[in-house]
Design brief:
The protein is built from 15 helices and no strands. With 382 residues, the protein is an all-alpha fold. The protein has a domain of 208 residues: ABC transporter involved in vitamin B12 uptake, BtuC (Orthogonal Bundle). Helix 3 packs across helix 4 and helix 4 runs parallel beside helix 9. It is globular. Keywords: Cell membrane, Membrane, Transmembrane, Transmembrane helix, Transport.
């Protein structure tokens, strides 16, 4: 009976971090009544591991194909729809005299901007949920986007900043300050920065920063006009210069966060277990925070504060491939831009001849998902 309990405990520990069954679990070291140690529980079979890997690889291919289709739809659909064959012809045999080819060319910048912003928000949101061990973590909910927005408004109001290259540094600073403030506020008290306290602190900090933004905007019509066009989260009107300005920072942030998958898996077991497995939770969270700030700041500077993408994508992916962050992080690079581009494409045709910005449509889609997550009662640690 004692041995069965130990094996059962080993199974539970193994399920918390997928594909880590080879690591010793705490349950495998439980002494028996005779003073000896029980043997570790049985490791998952190779067939089971192969099935999980094949399933995840299949979803990787499906999401890659979906992203490609949505990107082609972004080039073809709009106020002037273009046949898919014409889109492909414009990509591989561009003719400047062809009006349809010129339309496709003008939409390429918008599509690339959607890819960059989407992957940044998706990867940052997935990493934030792992670092905070909170399924409600998101750059918008935890106040990081609000910090970037306040900093950009301050740059417009006090320094006359205009354009992505000017917004970028303000957005980085605002994101970093907001992340530190939220963590410090949530850390007050005996229990420290629990997942629920992080969400509450993020909401409070975001509300306070929103009030400061409003105070600055109502006192300056010029600042309000610049901010109004930026804060709706639109992908239209971007330029290659704007994309190239944020691309190096996005690349660095992506590399940093993709290297944290194993760390996030161990953090899901708690800090004590992570230390026992050779990780340094404090250093790991700090490194992850750098990547998150780079991605959130870049996305906010380029397209404005777009919410819920970083919340929706991780929840969808967990239902498809499980909780292993070594898979969740790279898959978010495909799923998040597909979701954002789909929202952008839908926004172009809902209210023709006008458009609904992608940020507004993402919020319309994301709000019910957020409510559903809260109603499921899973605010506990991941």
């Amino acid at each position: 009976m004692q041995e069965g309990t130990a094996a059962e405990g080993t199974s539970v520990a193994g399920s918390a971090t997928p594909d880590t069954a080879s690591q010793p679990s705490a349950a495998s070291a439980v002494p028996t009544q005779a003073g000896a140690r029980t043997a570790p529980g049985p490791a998952p079979s190779l067939a089971a591991k192969g099935f999980n890997t094949r399933r995840r690889l299949c979803w990787l291919a499906v999401l890659g194909a979906a992203l490609l289709l949505v990107a082609l739809a972004s080039l073809a659909i709009g106020a002037r729809s273009i046949a898919p064959a014409t889109v492909l012809d414009a990509l591989f045999a561009f003719d400047p005299a062809n009006g349809d080819h010129a339309v496709v060319l003008s939409r390429i910048v918008r599509t690339v901007a959607g890819l960059v912003v989407g992957l940044s928000l998706g990867l940052a949101g997935t990493s934030m949920q792992g670092v905070a061990r909170n399924p409600l973590a998101d750059p918008g909910i935890l106040g990081v986007n609000a910090g970037a927005s306040l900093a950009v408004v301050s740059g417009i109001f006090f320094f006359g900043a205009a354009g992505v290259s000017s917004y970028l540094w303000f957005a980085f600073a605002g994101s970093a300050v907001a992340a530190v403030v939220v963590y410090l506020v949530a850390s007050l008290g005996r229990s420290g920065a629990t997942p629920v306290k992080l969400a509450l602190a993020g909401a409070a900090v975001a509300a306070g920063m929103g009030s400061l933004m409003s105070a600055m905007l109502v006192s300056s019509q010029d600042s309000l006009e610049l901010f109004r066009r930026w804060q709706v989260g639109a992908l239209a009107g971007k330029s290659w210069d704007s994309i190239l300005a944020v691309l190096p920072f996005v690349a660095v942030g992506v590399v940093i966060l993709l290297c944290t998958g194993r760390l996030l898996n161990t953090l899901a077991l708690g800090d004590d277990m992570a230390r026992g497995l050779g990780q340094r939770p404090g250093v790991g969270r700090a490194v992850s925070a750098v990547g998150i700030v780079l991605l959130c700041g870049s996305a906010t500077a380029l397209a404005g504060p777009i919410g819920f993408i970083g919340l929706i994508v991780p929840h969808l992916l967990r239902g498809l491939v499980g909780p292993d962050y070594r898979w969740l992080l790279p898959l978010s690079l495909l799923a998040a831009p597909a979701v954002l581009l789909a929202a952008d494409v839908a926004g172009r045709v809902i209210l023709l001849p006008s458009e609904v910005p992608a940020g507004i449509l993402a919020a319309i889609i994301g709000a019910p998902v957020f409510i559903a997550v809260v109603r499921r009662g899973k605010q506990a640690e991941l």
